[in-house]
């Protein structure tokens, strides 16, 4: 199994506060990898570290290494902009731009000065991948804010996919959605892993059970257990993992 991302002795700090402690993980390509834990365990910080979104906080610093296809994401010779194209992120709250559905999905492509023909095809393809095309194909010029919450979130997924990343980070993207919208996003993820590596901080244990190929349980910044989704949720080896996935705490 080829590893897309390798995390070695990675620690993360906000000022003097250590929020991730000496994390070691191998994240395989073309799988759904869930990283989960109770609030303030460091899962969102970890996801943001993978495409260096945490660089935006002046108090943030890290130790250790994260390798993407064998190369350090912290190498000063590497472009952070290019890294964020290779590793796209969908946030917990939908973030539609104040423009049309089409312009939202094509926004990054226009910044890259792609041709109109390329953009038209890429937008349609991304909306299909995000299971939204059939619902919006006749109103692409409508304001993105006119979409429902679930549709907005799938549009944000499409906006990331339009840039053809290699890795998609999904941070509790279903937390505010109804069951039908959640199911559509999960179905999309199951298909998308054929083309992308997906790393998700799921919004609850039930979601993690449904979609995870592999999973890691983090508690207060410490990696407690990592393994296949089946093993972690059906036969956890650590008592803390068992207590969390069975609802005894968290």
Q: How would you portray this structure in words?
A:
This protein has 250 residues and is an alpha/beta fold. The chain has one domain (3-245): P-loop containing nucleotide triphosphate hydrolases (Rossmann fold). Helices cover 36% and strands 27% of the residues. The strands form two sheets. It has a six-stranded mixed sheet, sandwiched between helices.
How many domains make up the coordinates? Answer: 1
The tally of helices reads: 10
- Overall mean pLDDT stands at 93
Helix content: 25-40%
| Portion in strands | 25-35%
Instruction: Give the distance, in angstroms, between the N- and C-terminal Cα atoms.
Output: 32 Å
Entry summary:
The protein is α/β, with parallel strands linked by helices and 250 residues long.
Layout of helices and strands, plus pairs?
Blueprint: E1 3-14, E2 17-28, E3 32-36, H1 43-50, E4 60-68, E5 71-72, H2 80-86, E6 87-90, H3 101-111, H4 116-129, H5 133-136, H6 149-161, E7 167-171, H7 179-192, E8 197-201, H8 205-211, E9 214-219, E10 222-228, H9 229-234, H10 239-245
Helix pairs in contact: 3-4, 3-6, 4-6
Quickly list its features:
single chain, 250 residues, Rossmann fold, 6-stranded mixed sheet, 10 strands, globular
